[in-house]
Amino acid sequence: MTVADLHAMGPEPEDDVPAGRVPPQDLPAEQSVLGAMLLSKQAIDPANDLLEGRDFYRPAHEAIFETIVDLAQRGEPADAITVAAELQRRGELTKVGGAPYLHTLVAGVPIASTVDYYAEIVDRAQAEVLDVDGSSGTDDYKVISELMAQTIQEIDDIQSRDGDMAGLESGFPDLDKLTTGFRGGQMIVVAARPGVGKSTLGLDFCRAASIKNGVPSAIFSLEMSGAEIAMRLLSAEAKVAIHHMRGGGMTDRDWDAVSRVMPRVQSAPITIDDSPNMTMPEIRSKARRIQKAADGKLGLIVIDYLQLMTSGKKVENRQVEVSEFSRQIKLLAKEINVPVVAISQLNRGSEQRTDKTPQISDLRESGSIEQDADMVFLINRPDATGAGESERPGEADIIVAKNRSGPVNKVAVSFQGHYSRFTPMAPVRGAFPCVQARLLAQFRGGRQHRCDSKVGGWAVPPRPGRRCAHADSLPSPRLPAGFVTAFVATAAA
């Protein structure tokens, strides 16, 4: 039996709809939603997140929907029998078609898990109704004069913050200077080749939001399990090597470090969903529920990663499917007013070039990702590409390839893969600038020079008095012969 056969079975509900032109509707989809809700309590919340009673074209379906939701909110079972009893008590059972119609709804839905799909159809039909007759509850449009006062107030608030971040901090101060923080409604794409650290950077954003600042965040992971994510968070916070955690090599000192950070990590408002084969309607429904559970204070969503998502439908090609995911992620960010970080893979374009630095054109399977995103971050790790020893071991660049609200540039960071994290680059401690940079700049006329205090990297451009920057946690530099003597002599001068 299919929902298309329902009209031929059992008593039909009374249609209290006006005659004449029929507005956009999808009765089989409405019946499927109600049938799924009656079949499984797990289908009630997703349907309730997407729909309201007035979204149903048929008044009888609206009455059934509201009865199911009322019973569920009271903690009572909502199946065909209990709903029929409640409708009978309200004097509406005959109007909706009687108890046999409720059982017919259940029989027409083979799997309750498809409720999101049918609810989306009903939602779209209702949206078309509102587009046609203008009966939406609120006016989404505003004339410019209404917006100017609000805009001037926002500008004034930003100027009076005295250095405070306008949006959500990323955990990387130099990156925040370019972006002014993550804002509600933004779609932020983090892209890299496999194994470079795109998932790690996404978790770093969550750590900064939830562990450091107490802002609720949600991670939808199609790649890693929840246990693996929790282990990575512990490794990053406790500075305990992830391979020690996985390989059974933890020392007493490691256990002490984990014990110290455990309360902070455990109490962080982070929600993790590692369900396989998640679709965008499922993610949208769950995000709305998490937002509701967080009292509307959800501050960040991370989806890891875009190319692992599936629509569950036949599509023309994979590029069209990924383009649809991208568009829906942007709409989700705007709908719930939360910044959404979408992790994405890059194609092999950068590997085929002499310069291995990734470019925004390397985004895999869809040019619409670049179009929909408010920001695009590309991760470049010189020590992860090419052959031979890198001149920048342990370093990486977050390339801001697109930024709708500010400049594009790149930010140097430290990659600590053994701790599953990136960290900001910190200036060398001490009052003295790099003496080697000073001397070489003087004798080489300002050309590019090797700087050993940057652990084998390059100081660019060399200037007299330039201060080199590198992460304090990197190994001690190998200084050339005579360097200490030169340092002391110059410092004394």
Secondary structure layout:
Blueprint: H1 27-39, H2 44-50, H3 59-73, H4 80-90, H5 98-107, H6 115-133, H7 144-159, H8 173-179, E1 187-192, H9 198-212, E2 217-221, H10 226-238, H11 242-247, H12 252-266, E3 270-273, H13 280-293, E4 300-304, H14 318-336, E5 340-345, H15 368-372, E6 375-380, E7 395-403, E8 409-416, E9 421-424, H16 435-444, E10 449-451, E11 457-459, H17 483-492
Structure description:
- The structure is a single chain.
- The chain is an alpha/beta fold.
- The chain has three domains: 3-133, DNAb Helicase, Chain A, CATH 1.10.860.10; 170-424, P-loop containing nucleotide triphosphate hydrolases (Rossmann fold); 435-492, no CATH class.
- Helices cover 42% and strands 12% of the residues.
- The strands form two sheets. It has a nine-stranded mixed beta sheet, with helices on both faces. Strands 10-11 form a two-stranded antiparallel sheet.
- The model is unreliable at 1-10, 16-23, 130-138 and 428-493 (pLDDT under 50).
Q: Which structural class do you get from the secondary structure elements?
A: alpha/beta
Helix content: 40-55%
Q: What is the number of beta strands?
A: 11
| Strand adjacency order, main sheet | 3-2-4-5-1-6-7-8-9
Characterize the quaternary organization of these chains.
single chain
Q: What is the average of the pLDDT values?
A: 75
Q: What is the rounded distance between the termini?
A: 92 Å
The gyration radius over C-alpha positions equals 29 Å
CATH superfamily of the largest domain: P-loop containing nucleotide triphosphate hydrolases
| N-to-C SSE string, H for helix and E for strand | HHHHHHHHEHEHHHEHEHEHEEEEHEEH
